[in-house]
Amino acid sequence: MAAGHDTEARRELDRLFRREAGRLVATLVKRLGPHHLSLAEDTAQEALTAAARTWPYDGLPENPAAWLQATAYRKAIDELRHIKVAQTALPELERAAQDTRPIGQSATDSELELLFLCCQPNMAEMDRVALTLNIAFGFSAREIAQLFYATPAAMSARLTRAKERAASVGLSTGTPLGQEAGERMPTVLKVIYLAFSLGYRPGPGPVAVREDIALEALRLAQSLALGPWRTDGTCHALAALLSFQASRLATRRDDAGHFTPLAQQDRTRWDKDLIAQGFVHLSRARQTAQLGRYHIEAGIAAAHVAGPSVQATDWAQIIALYETLEVMTGSAIVTLNKAAAIAAAGRAADALNILDELADHPSMRGNIHYHTARADVLSTLGRQQDAKAAFKKARFLPGSDSDLAYLDGRLAALD
């Protein structure tokens, strides 16, 4: 097969992995029953693995999504026959395997249903979040671990326990409404928020931005905001936040794929439609009695996109919002971001004091972004030798290839 066909197939496979994996699992769970969640996940992954083996050589099928659907069904049938269970599920799967038409339900609805399925309140929240990120978005234990500052081994063990717990307590299918949806909604929103974060800043590896993941999370947030589950402005607040952040996706990396800091981004290339859409969601988000963290973060993102330049950005407003968010969450990451905003406002000495106070926090010790921020502030203050030492410390911490390239550039400039 020509190299171009191979590249096209691999690109399509990467896209479909994020868009179809959760949908396949959701459909199989409906037909197998929630107690077969692991089987549904396994057969969906086997279908994607089969596609990875064959598509680069045989070419893309006419309907890739339907091919994955039919393959997953056949693998589920084979497994059920092998273990001789689920006599009621098997006939329905056999009929479905003969039908290669796309699933009738929209992808968004199926994926949201899977999120609600995994986010039932009979497990610890961290288990629900990790389980849903793994099953609905296909994130690995290593990727999820970085969100919680855990080791991949510990997260892998947590995922195993969460799946065992899900199988033992039973999960009800169907998208909940009313009070039941309200109980699960905070976790569903958190999962979408974290999935977007893993696309927006993937962490260690060669990729600076995983745009397909970020846009998928944005699409789900928008569907929640416009769906029947909303009871206040929280869904709109998350949709506003992700719309503002997604508007800058195209400028977060240069032609070589390296990360581009906010100060160096071409603001004329920010997506004006997404920005306008974000302000619509933000307006609707304010129609609520209580503001939450997504409201505050959306306000910060709105202030960034409203600024015509870094110098003309309303840093005082951003700092005030970070202070509110800091009180609300107690998060060291929020404090780190507040320090960066204070430095951008021209108060580098104040920012350094805050960063130094954070030095012993567990989430900062091995955090490449903390040490990079501290090095940048030291450089701004003219303490070049201290800045060089801080950049070197950051350089040997886990980070994306783009993060490391940025650090190499800063170190070279200081030599």
Verbal overview:
This protein is 71% helix and 0% strand. By secondary structure, the chain is mainly α. Among the domains are: 1-102, no CATH class; 314-415, Tetratricopeptide repeat domain (Serine Threonine Protein Phosphatase 5, Tetratricopeptide repeat, Alpha Horseshoe), CATH 1.25.40.10. The longest helix is centred in the N-terminal third of the chain and has 30 residues, at 3-32.
User: In which range does the helix fraction lie?
Assistant: over 70%
Uncertain ranges: 99-107
Q: Would you count the extended β strands for me?
A: 0
Helix tally? 20
Helix/strand order, N-terminal first: HHHHHHHHHHHHHHHHHHHH
* Biggest sheet statistics: none
Judged by helices, strands and strand pairing, the structural class is mainly alpha
Q: What is the mean pLDDT?
A: 83
Shape verdict = globular
Oligomerization category of the chains in this entry:
single chain
> In whole angstroms, how far apart are the ends?
48 Å
Radius of gyration: 23 Å
Strand content: under 5%
